[in-house]
Every structure is written in structure tokens, then in C-alpha cells.
Design goal:
The complex is a heterotrimer of chains A (255), B (612) and C (269). Helices cover 75% and strands 1% of the residues of chain B. By secondary structure, chain B is an all-alpha fold. Chain B has a domain of 278 residues. The two termini of chain B are 21 Å apart. In chain C, strands 1-2 form a two-stranded antiparallel sheet. In chain C, a hairpin with a 2-residue loop joins strand 1 and strand 2. The chains are: A mainly alpha (255), B mainly alpha (612), C mainly alpha (269).
Chain lengths: 255, 612, 269
């Protein structure tokens, strides 16, 4: 027996929905956010609608049961039941949606706020657009010294940064559990790999308190490292971050 | 017919008057803004260039809220915003129509198929009032700009007075050519006359494009100022100011987008005429017209993401701050809205093609593939839609152990999105190829080999795009992330051009299964065309907001501060509301434009009114 | 016509969906307001506003009232318009001013040009003023701010206000330049930078507004001193006034400077 097309469409949607849940929540153990799956399903529904209705005959077949339910005198009972259930379902859904809950409101932080053009770092006004890592050029000119500097950067990192950002630079240091927002994972392709070195310099030296307005609430526990580290130490740490993770600082020039 | 034509001319002439008056106002307006500017403007009209060089220029004014005239009850920023947006929509439309009218006219001349010539004429006919509206709205924009932002306008005009003057001249040229082109359509037919007409069409396009380039240079100057020093003192070289960093990226993006946009609006017109058509013949005609308009829109839509990507990359290159404001900061969510809209565009364009397969009797052979295309399109779209920053509830945060999502996180950045959009473009092209093939049976002997090559081409292309995206996006230096997008685009181009070329050889001298049944298409498909037009309009409005918004509190980036009370950047929701209101006004005006074009052919024969 | 309305409804619905999604489907982030720029205000200021600005600086940023108050640590300035001609003729006068405005500016940026008898630094026989140069150091008033203070002083002394509101002076930028400094490593330099000696005496040199610090290391430990520096009003030494010492040193000093200073202070035994 062929499955009626309306049922087919519904089954496809259910299949996709539970497919997402199964793959993300169960198999990969990385839950799919509710905010995202709603929009995903919206577009999947649009896609299913498109596939099921581009042809006249098939559309007629798809809507036939709905039409019959509304128009066919023999389906009066079902019709009445549906017409009662639908408004109730909508009303109920709205009620549950609007009910106050104990869930803390969503907090949304901008993870990469746009840097200011200039910032006051180490008592100097630094132009972040032009700022470059003074040691970066050594990478080609003097690889040996470059390596030494990275090793020095590693030492600085282990002394100061790994408690939160982790000894694997994955944001899972011993103190990471206690922090919200959690420390940044430098291994992630979405963090330092997307940024220029001057941006890191700005974020490290000015820390949580140096975040601009748009990155509010300023609950970042990142210290203001310019008070504790020397300028050259910060640059060395930055080089270590890139070296260890294998990322390259963002730049627009080819090598 | 002479009556109604004259009737249509009258408002146009009135408009000329208005524009001229406004331009005059512009030049006299200089007096209060700065004696230098007016002197310069006057000098230019007399002895062109050299007077300008000697004049010293003032730095950009430092403004306070008191420098901005206000009118009670009017939000000056929103007023300027809406008029600028309306003007831009109409300008995009009227710049695009001559481009494809010109192309369709050539097709008509080559094929000697009168239907094309008639369609080209109808395109220009239905949009003729839009030219006047563009001018009215441009004049209003100018008016509000001078009214509410006199110092900004004054500063810009000290730099661009020369080009503003040529803009005015070009505008008159544009109008003159347009009217001869349109009203002379039936007069300039056949032989050399048709060639003259085509020449007019070409010059209309050249002049129109020059107008756009000039206006673009003014606005890109505000984004990436050039030819001025840090205090905003103009160096005297207008060309340096015009040829600023973002000028060409914007030019390219707008040129392509205008064509897609014009196609979608005319498509909506045809769709409406189709739905209200009385006869089968009329339905067939408007179905055909809608199909052609949609074809134009899709052709321009396919390269558009690349043009946009180029523009964004150039912005990043110009200033990291601007780039991060654009992609990573407050505007990051705008790109999620943009993804929804572009997804809408791609999906509705594809849906229209699929519905159109009902026109041919041979389409059954291909319909079984549609669901796979749909799966890939939706899948690629979901990747594109996935935001970089996920909105997580506290419970989800706990379950994930932080805001980083190991699967969705990597989908949020550019390499994934580039891959997705390339796949979407390739599959839209595939939809189109199926549509083309639907009614044909190949007669060449190597048809199987040809098909195999095409399958191989598509497979290799998609694999290459995936490889480039995944390998270069996640396993190599950052610099290649950007670089990988170029071979991806090239792959897409090679696949599309290669397969369509091959297709045209395979289907040379092919048999038609049966004559195409123009008009045999469900009404739903017409709504796909409406959706295309509306989504396009709204999207342009939204992107207008971000293009202007990334300057944040600057009139001219880093040179002239916006000192008004409206210097803050509005939220996305507010911007969306302004765009929606403007879009509704625009749609109403477009309906008026189309209606007025139709009125001219309606005749009322009153009985007993005129003495016999 | 029905068709027309259906299409219009469809269009409105579509636009509504886009607007709805933008408003409710995504988080609304309130972008940062444009940064405030003080210098913009100067251009549109009236003289009254300018004088009011001077008043604010006098009470606040300029820290003038620390000493120029009823406790008599420094001369009061209400009669300045009457007494200044006499001072200019005084033989101890080392400046070049010829009118009140110039004299006031001079007194602000070069306080030792004339020291009112009895108000000089201890041991200098009124040759040196304990007052710091207000355009430098931790006070760091810009030229425009100095002008505003002068305008205020002229006004409150009942003299004609001769100061012109600067229009071309880039106040904000000057301020930034003044802020620009490297962390200092020498405790003496730090004390000079923050003009500690204007109020505190060490080994016989310095003011008497605050406690003598010559043997402070013997009496207090490092933690106490740190708190005393960062939160001066938390505990007030006997016989001294509260609210005298600036309570924003924590913001003005580099952390390294604070530590250097503490190292120095605990050694004072």
C-alpha cells in the first residue's frame, strides 16, 4: 500500500527532526540548540513543501485529505474534532510559551567585538589598525631566534595563562570550570585563527575590563595583563599561541 | 494613443522643473555653507577645472547636535533613510531594465523573433514612470539631506561639486536618450533604423552606469575617504576622492545586484498579469515573460554572492575595525537575517523552475531528481544559516560545557559558508539544466558519453569545492581560508559553464517532445516570483542599513563625526522595521507604476458625451 | 480584484515575516552609543557654561580644593583681583605676567613664580610653592581646561572675565597626550608624578596636609599601606581630615608603580 502524500510529508518532517536530535544529542553528544533547530525545521518544512507541491497532480493529492476533511459532509465528526483541537493547541502552546519560568534569561555576548581604532596600552596610544608583532618578521629572517622567542612565550603562558586556558590551549584549564563565560579555546578554528595579532594584543593587554560596550555584560574574568606582563612578553605569548595550535594569524598578505 | 502619451509626458516635464529647481537650490545652498564652495561651483561653470586647484579647503566641520536642524515630529535620520532607500530601489530598477531590454532587443534582432522585441518594449513601457519616480525621490532625498544635514552636504559638495555638476548634466542626457529610445521604439524599426535604436539603448546604458558610478563614489567616499587629509582638508583632486578604496567593489556589487533586482521586479509584474489574465493566450504570454524575467534574475543572482564576498573582503582589507564591525560585532546577526533572505531567494527561484517543468510533456524523466536537489539545497542552506555565536539556554550551555559547539562551531565561519553557497549555486544551475532538458530528446550519437562527462564534471566539481572548503578552511593557514574561496568560485564557474556548453552540443538538433505549453504552470509558481521580488527588495534595504551602519557614528569615516542626536547605531529590529515600512511604500509605488502603464491602453467610450 | 488583494496580502505577510524574524527571531543587541567627545562642547559653549566647566574642574579634576579651602593650607582666591597688582610689583615675583589673566595662568602652571608669604614649601623660605603644576603630572589639565579654571577664578573674584573660549584647541587630544606615559620604576619619580610631597612630608621635605611618611614603614605593614593608598578614606590618621587625599590613585597608577611605591614605603623606618 502506498503511503498517502500528506502522511509522507509529515513523516519526512518527523524523520528529519528526530534525525537531528538523534545525531546531535545522542550520537555526537553535542546538543543542538533549540533556537537553531526551530529555524532549521522551518526551512526543512519549506523544502518539503516545495518538493511536494511543484507538480499540480501531486499537490492535488497532497491537499485532498485536508480538503475532504473540511468539505466532505461524511467527515463531519473528524472536522469538528479538528476544529476544536487546533485552537486549543494554539492556545495551550501560547500559554506554555508565555508562562514565567525560573530559567535565567538568555545572555548573549559578542565574542569578537570590533576593536577600537586606537587603545591606550602600556601608557601609549596604540593604533590597532597598524600595530604589528615586532617579532613576526623574525620567522623568516632568523628562524632560530624566532623559535627561542616562542619558547619564552611558552614559559610565560605556563606561568600565567594555562590555569584557565589549559595546557593544551583548549580552554580547559584547572580553573576553567568555575568561569562563565568559559575561557577561550584557542584550538577552535573560530577564535584566534580568525584574528590578527594586533587584536590578540588588544584583548590580552586590556582584558575583560577593556571590552567595549557592545561586548557587555563584562563578565569576562580575563585580567588586564598589561599590568602584569611586559610588552615583549605579550607578543611572545601570542606567537606561542599560534605556534602551538598550528593556526596562522589572520593577515591579508600571502607569504 | 497620442492623448495618453502626452498625459504621461506632463508629469515628467514637471519633474524636470522640480529637479532643476532642487539643483539650483543645491548651488545656492552653498552660500550659507561656505563661501569657498559657492565660489568654486561658480568658477567651475565658467572655467572648468583650474579654478578649483588654487582654492584652499576647510577641514571637515566638527558638529554638535545644535548644527542639525530639526522639525518637530520628524525623525530626520529616518526621513533621509527612507527616501534614500526608496530612491535606491527605484534607481536600481531603472538602471537594470535598460540593461536587459538592450540584451533582449539584440536577441530579437538576431533571431528575428518579434516576440522578443515586443517583450523588450513592454519591459520599458511598464517601467517608464519609474524614471520620473526615481528623479522625484532623488530630489526629495537631496532636499531632506540639505534640510537635515546641511553641514554634511556642504562638506561633501566642497569635494564633489564638480562631479555633482556632471551628474546633473548626465541626468539630462539620460532623460533625453530615454525618451527618444522609448517613444521612438516603433518609429525606429527595420534596417539601419533598428541599429540606431540599438545604439540609443547602448548609450542609455552607458549614461545610466556613469550616473551610478558617480553616486557610488560619493557614498564610498563616506565609507573609505580618500583625497583628504586626517582633518578632512580636501587635497583638490576630485578623482582621488572618487577613486577611493571601496568604489569599485561597490560598483561591481551594485551593477550585478541591480540586474537581478530589475529581473525580479519585472518577474513580479508578469506574475501578476498572469494571475489576472483573461485568456489562455494572455496567460501564455505572461508566463513566457515571467520566465524570461526570472531567468535574468537568476543569471545575475548566481554571481552575486561572489561580488558580495569580494566587497566584504575589501572592507576588511580597508580596515580591520570595519571588517569586524561588519562580520563579528553587532552586525553579525544581520548576516543571519541575510542568510534567511538569500535562502528564500534561492529556494523560490528553484521552486519556480521546478513548477515550470509542468510546461513540457517530457519533464517526467527528470522530476525524480528534484527531491535530491531539494535535499542538497536545504542542507547547504542550513549550513549557511548556522550562526557563529549560538543562542544557548543555560541548560544547553551546561550540556555543552561552554559556548563552543564542536560540530556547529566550525559551520559558523566563512569556509563552511563559502562551500555551502557554492554548492547551492551549482545545484541551482543543475535545476536550470534539468528544466532546459525537460522538453528535449538528444539526437547525437554520443549522448551517453556526454551525460557521463557531465556527471563526472559535477561530481568532481562538488568534491573539489568540499575539499577546498574543508581542507583549506580548517587544516591550513588562515590566509588560505580566504584564498580557498577563489578556487571554489572558479570550480563553480567551470562546472556551470562547462556543463551548459556541453549541453548545448548534446542538444544540438534535438527533437522536442511536444510543443511547450506556455501558461501551463500553477499559480503557486507566480507566488514564488512575488516572494523573489519582495525578498530582494527587503534584502537590499537591509544591506543598505549595514553598508551605511558600519560607519557607526561617522558621517565620513574617521574624518567627519556625526554629532547629531541620531549618531547611535539602531538595533537590527528597528532597522528591520524601517526597511519594512520603506518596502511597503516602495511596493505601493511599484503597483502604481505598473497600473499607470496599463491605464494608457484602457479606453472608455462614453456614449452621448461628445456631440456627434 | 480578489487576486490583487491576495497578492497584496501575500506581500505584506512576507514583509511581516522578515520584520518579525528580525525583531523576535534573533537577539537584539543595543549597539554602543557613540563615544563622548568633550572637545565638541567647547565650540558651542557660552561663557557661562565655560565658567561652570572651570568650576567643575576646580572642585573635581583639578583637585584645587584639597588645599584652597577654609582650612588655610593655601591662600583663598576670592580677593585675587584686588591683591594681584601688589604681588606683581613684589620683589619676590619671578614671573612675567602683566594682567590678571596671565597671572592666574602663570600661577597654575608655574606656581613658584610667586609664593604668598607663609604658604611656601617647608624649609624653602617661601621660595618654592608646594602646589604642583596643574597642566602636568596626575592632574594634567589641558590648555582649554586651564583656561576654564582661569575664567572661573576671574568670575568668582568679581573681576571681568577676559579669557576667550578656545575654539581651535583640541582639548581631548591634549588630554590624551598628557595621559601618555610609561610606568615609572623609581619611587621618587612616582611620588613626584602623583605630587605626594604636596601633602606628605618625607625626611623634612614636603607638605603638612597629610601625615609625615618618614617612618611609615615602621608603623604599618604593606597591606595597610596598600589600602591607605587605594582607599585613603577607609581609615584616617589622627589629626587629619578625611577626603583630602585623591581616592582614584588605583586608577591612575600602574600596578607595577603601586608595588614599587609600597616597596619604598615599607622600607621607610
Amino acid at each position: 500500500m502506498r503511503i498517502p502524500r500528506l502522511l509522507q510529508a509529515v513523516l519526512v518532517l518527523l524523520f528529519v527532526y528526530f534525525g537531528f536530535i538523534l545525531v546531535f544529542d545522542v550520537i555526537l553528544e553535542a546538543v543542538i540548540p533549540a533556537s537553531l533547530i526551530i529555524m532549521y525545521m522551518f526551512f526543512v518544512t519549506a523544502g518539503v513543501f516545495m518538493v511536494f507541491t511543484y507538480d499540480e497532480e501531486q499537490t492535488a493529492e497532497l491537499v485532498a485529505p485536508i480538503k475532504a476533511m473540511v468539505e466532505d459532509p461524511s467527515k463531519r465528526l473528524i472536522r469538528n474534532i479538528v476544529f476544536v483541537i487546533v485552537p486549543l493547541a494554539v492556545g495551550g502552546g501560547t500559554y506554555w510559551q508565555m508562562q514565567p519560568s525560573f530559567e535565567a534569561p538568555l545572555e548573549l555576548r559578542t565574542i569578537h567585538p570590533a576593536p577600537p581604532t586606537t587603545a591606550k596600552i602600556y601608557g601609549k596610544r596604540v593604533n590597532l589598525l597598524k600595530l604589528e608583532n615586532p617579532y613576526r618578521k623574525l620567522e623568516k629572517e632568523d628562524p632560530e631566534q624566532f623559535r627561542e622567542l616562542i619558547d619564552e612565550g611558552a614559559a610565560v603562558y605556563i606561568k600565567n595563562c594555562q590555569y584557565c586556558h589549559g595546557d593544551k590551549l583548549d580552554g580547559k584549564g584547572p580553573y576553567a570550570e568555575g568561569l562563565n563565560p568559559t575561557p577561550l579555546n584557542f584550538q577552535d578554528v573560530g577564535t584566534i585563527a580568525q584574528l590578527q595579532e594586533s587584536y590578540l594584543f588588544w584583548r590580552i593587554t586590556t582584558g575583560g575590563p577593556g571590552l567595549p560596550q557592545e561586548a557587555a555584560p563584562w563578565i569576562s574574568s580575563m585580567p588586564v595583563w598589561q599590568d602584569f606582563l611586559k610588552e615583549d612578553e605579550v607578543w611572545k605569548v601570542i606567537m606561542f599561541l599560534y605556534d602551538y595550535t598550528g593556526h596562522r594569524p589572520r593577515s591579508w598578505e600571502h607569504e | 494613443m497620442t492623448g495618453p502619451r502626452a498625459f504621461r509626458k506632463a508629469p515628467a516635464l514637471a519633474l524636470f522643473g522640480l529637479i532643476f529647481a532642487l539643483l539650483a537650490l543645491t548651488f545656492t545652498g552653498f552660500d550659507q555653507l561656505g563661501p569657498l564652495a559657492s565660489e568654486q561651483a561658480a568658477a567651475e561653470q565658467v572655467v572648468a577645472a583650474d579654478a578649483a586647484v588654487a582654492a584652499p579647503y576647510a577641514p571637515a566641520p566638527k558638529l554638535t547636535a545644535a548644527d542639525y536642524p530639526t522639525i518637530a515630529g520628524v525623525n530626520s535620520r529616518v526621513a533621509v533613510w527612507i527616501f534614500a532607500q526608496l530612491h535606491l530601489w527605484f534607481a536600481a530598477f531603472v538602471l537594470a531594465v535598460p540593461i536587459f531590454v538592450f540584451i533582449i532587443e539584440i536577441i530579437g534582432m538576431r533571431t528575428r523573433d518579434k516576440r522578443y522585441d515586443d517583450m523588450a518594449y513592454e519591459f520599458i513601457k511598464v517601467s517608464i514612470t519609474a524614471y520620473s519616480l526615481t528623479a522625484i525621490l532623488g530630489g526629495s532625498l537631496l532636499f531632506f539631506l540639505i534640510l537635515f544635514y546641511p553641514h554634511l552636504f556642504g562638506y561633501l559638495s566642497t569635494i564633489f561639486s564638480e562631479s555633482m555638476f556632471y551628474y546633473a548634466l548626465l541626468f539630462f542626457a539620460e532623460s533625453a536618450v530615454l525618451y527618444i529610445y522609448y517613444y521612438g521604439w516603433h518609429w525606429l524599426q527595420g534596417g539601419i533604423r533598428k541599429w540606431i535604436h540599438l545604439g540609443l539603448g547602448l548609450s542609455l546604458n552607458v549614461v545610466g552606469t556613469c550616473l551610478m558610478l558617480l553616486a557610488n563614489s560619493w557614498l564610498t567616499f563616506m565609507m573609505s575617504p580618500a583625497g583628504v587629509d586626517a582633518a578632512g582638508v580636501f587635497g583638490g583632486d576630485t578623482w582621488a576622492a572618487m577613486n577611493n578604496f571601496l568604489w569599485h567593489p561597490i560598483n561591481i556589487h551594485r551593477f550585478v545586484a541591480n540586474i537581478a533586482y530589475g529581473g525580479s521586479i519585472v518577474g513580479a509584474y508578469a506574475a501578476f498579469k498572469f494571475l489576472t489574465a483573461g485568456s489562455q493566450e494572455e496567460r501564455a504570454h505572461y508566463d513566457w515573460m515571467g520566465y524570461n524575467a526570472n531567468f535574468i534574475a537568476i543569471c545575475a543572482l548566481l554571481p552575486l554572492p561572489f561580488a558580495g564576498y569580494y566587497l566584504a573582503a575589501e572592507m576588511y582589507l580597508y580596515s580591520q575595525q570595519m571588517g569586524i564591525t561588519l562580520m563579528g560585532g553587532i552586525f553579525a546577526w544581520l548576516f543571519i537575517i541575510q542568510a534567511v533572505l538569500i535562502g528564500t531567494l534561492f529556494l523560490s527561484a528553484n521552486y519556480y523552475l521546478w513548477c515550470g517543468m509542468g510546461r513540457s510533456d517530457g519533464a517526467k524523466r527528470y522530476t525524480k531528481y528534484i527531491k535530491y536537489i531539494a535535499i542538497v539545497l536545504v542542507g547547504a542552506f542550513l549550513v549557511w544559516f548556522t550562526p557563529h555565536t549560538l543562542v544557548l539556554t543555560n541548560e544547553e550551555l551546561k550540556a555543552l560545557g561552554g559556548p563552543h559547539h564542536k560540530i556547529l562551531g566550525p559551520l559558523g565561519i566563512m569556509p563552511a559558508k563559502n562551500t555551502a553557497v557554492n554548492v547551492m549555486i551549482i545545484f541551482t544551475a543543475l535545476s536550470f539544466m534539468f528544466y532546459r532538458r525537460a522538453n528535449k530528446v538528444a539526437t547525437v550519437s554520443w549522448v551517453n558519453a556526454g551525460n557521463a562527462i557531465q556527471v563526472a564534471l559535477f561530481t568532481a566539481g562538488i568534491l573539489n569545492i568540499m575539499f577546498l572548503g574543508i581542507y583549506h578552511g580548517y587544516f591550513t593557514n588562515t590566509v588560505y581560508k580566504v584564498a580557498a574561496s577563489i578556487p571554489q568560485v572558479l570550480t563553480t564557474v567551470v562546472v556551470i559553464v562547462g556543463s551548459i556548453t556541453l549541453d548545448s552540443f548534446i542538444y544540438k538538433n534535438s527533437k522536442e517532445v511536444a510543443p511547450l505549453h506556455w501558461g501551463r504552470i500553477p499559480g503557486r509558481a507566480m507566488y514564488a516570483l512575488f516572494l523573489l521580488a519582495v525578498a530582494f527588495t527587503w534584502l537590499m534595504g537591509l544591506m543598505g542599513y549595514i553598508r551605511s551602519g558600519i560607519r557607526q557614528h561617522w558621517h565620513v569615516l574617521d574624518i567627519m563625526r556625526d554629532g547629531s542626536v541620531d549618531a547611535f547605531t539602531p538595533t537590527l529590529g528597528f532597522a528591520a522595521n524601517v526597511v519594512s515600512v520603506a518596502a511597503i511604500i516602495f511596493m505601493a509605488m511599484v503597483i502604481f507604476v505598473f497600473w499607470i502603464a496599463q491605464v494608457s491602453s484602457n479606453k472608455t467610450l462614453p456614449s452621448g458625451y461628445w456631440k456627434e | 480584484m480578489k487576486q490583487f488583494f491576495t497578492v497584496v496580502a501575500f506581500i505584506l505577510l512576507t514583509i511581516g515575516f522578515f520584520a518579525g524574524y528580525s525583531n523576535f527571531g534573533i537577539p537584539q543587541i543595543e549597539p554602543a552609543p557613540p563615544p563622548k567627545e568633550e572637545k565638541l562642547d567647547l565650540g558651542s559653549m557660552t561663557m557661562d557654561q565655560f565658567i561652570a566647566l572651570g568650576d567643575r574642574i576646580f572642585q573635581g579634576k583639578g583637585t584645587c580644593t584639597l588645599c584652597h579651602n577654609s582650612l588655610g593650607r593655601a591662600p583663598m582666591l576670592g580677593t585675587i583681583a584686588e591683591v594681584f597688582p601688589k604681588r606683581l610689583k613684589d620683589e619676590r615675583y619671578k614671573g612675567e605676567a602683566e594682567d590678571l589673566e596671565a597671572y592666574l595662568v602663570e600661577s597654575l602652571v608655574e606656581p613658584s613664580a610667586f609664593v604668598v608669604a607663609g604658604f611656601g614649601k617647608k624649609g624653602t623660605n617661601d621660595a618654592e610653592s608646594p602646589m604642583p603644576n596643574v597642566s602636568g603630572g596626575s592632574i594634567g589639565l589641558s590648555e582649554a581646561e586651564v583656561a576654564a579654571v582661569v575664567a572661573y577664578l576671574q568670575d568668582q573674584a568679581g573681576a571681568e572675565v577676559t579669557v576667550e573660549i578656545p575654539t581651535d584647541v583640541d582639548a581631548a587630544e591634549e588630554e590624551e597626550e598628557a595621559e601618555t606615559r610609561e610606568a615609572l620604576a623609581d619611587p621618587k619619580a612616582i611620588m613626584a608624578q602623583f605630587t605626594c610631597d604636596a601633602c606628605h612630608m618625607i625626611n623634612g621635605a614636603g607638605g603638612e596636609v597629610g601625615p609625615d611618611l618618614s617612618k611609615v614603614g615602621a608603623a604599618y605593614d604593606r597591606d595597610y599601606l596598600r589600602r591607605a593608598l587605594l582607599q585613603p578614606n577607609a581609615e584616617i590618621a589622627k589629626g587629619f581630615e578625611a577626603d583630602m587625599m585623591p581616592d582614584d590613585l588605583g586608577e591612575q597608577m600602574f600596578v607595577t608603580e603601586l608595588e614599587v611605591l609600597l616597596d619604598f614605603l615599607v622600607e621607610l623606618k
